[in-house]
Amino acid sequence: VLMVIFESRPDALPQVASLAIASANGLLMKGGKEAFNSNKILMRLVNEALGRYGCSDAISLVSGRDEVADLLKLDQYIDLIIPRGSNELVKSIKERSKSIPVLGHADGICHTYLDEACDPEKAVKIVVDAKTDYPAACNAMETLLVHESLLTNEVFYLVCAALKKANVEIFSGPRLSEHLTFGPPKAEKMSF
């Protein structure tokens, strides 16, 4: 059984539910209070769909923080906790879960890599979408990794130009800034 705790994004509920179904895992979910009504409706749809196959109780939604505190003690039933959201949420769950493993994230794990064989047009679209489609999401691109061979052709320039056009502020890491004669200034530090 998985337990996924997410903040105010109700779109996480059907995404997480479908992954649990596909991987044959039971699931407990806790969404943010800001999306309580949306989560309730989405959960009703999930239960209805699962009910057609006789397993509507395989996925449940918990609503209160007190319930989460109690659930964090149920290591004989819950195999893994996955908090999705802010660093504060992840840190809090990691600290409070004494015996259930927590798969959490930290700053700077959302990377996009451009390989030397990438299609320039697709690369621009993917990078811009990864950064700008929903920049407040916990999975928005934070770091763009570029194969060094792309620095000498138009791909790097096209990607930087597209990001600037989308009003994205760009900074380079220390190794890259040594080789650039234009473009992104060196980052003051590599984390926030």
Key features of this structure:
4-stranded parallel β-sheet, two-stranded parallel ribbon
Strand % is: 5-15%
> Average pLDDT across residues?
87
Largest sheet: 4 strands, parallel
CA distance, first residue to last residue: 34 Å
* Alpha carbon gyration radius: 21 Å
Which class do the helix and strand fractions yield? alpha/beta
- How many strands in all? 6
Total helices: the number is 7
Shape: elongated
Strand order of the largest sheet: 3-2-1-4
**Low-confidence region ranges:** none
List the secondary-structure elements in sequence, H or E. Answer: EHEHEHEHEHEHH
What is the percent of helical residues?
25-40%
Describe this entry's structure for a reader.
By secondary structure, the protein is α/β, with parallel strands linked by helices. It is 39% helix and 14% strand. The protein has a four-stranded parallel beta sheet, sandwiched between helices. A two-stranded parallel ribbon has the order 5-6. Helix 5 links the parallel strand 5 and strand 6 (143-146). Helix 5 (120-132) packs parallel to helix 6 (154-165). The protein starts with a strand and ends in a 13-residue tail after the last helix.
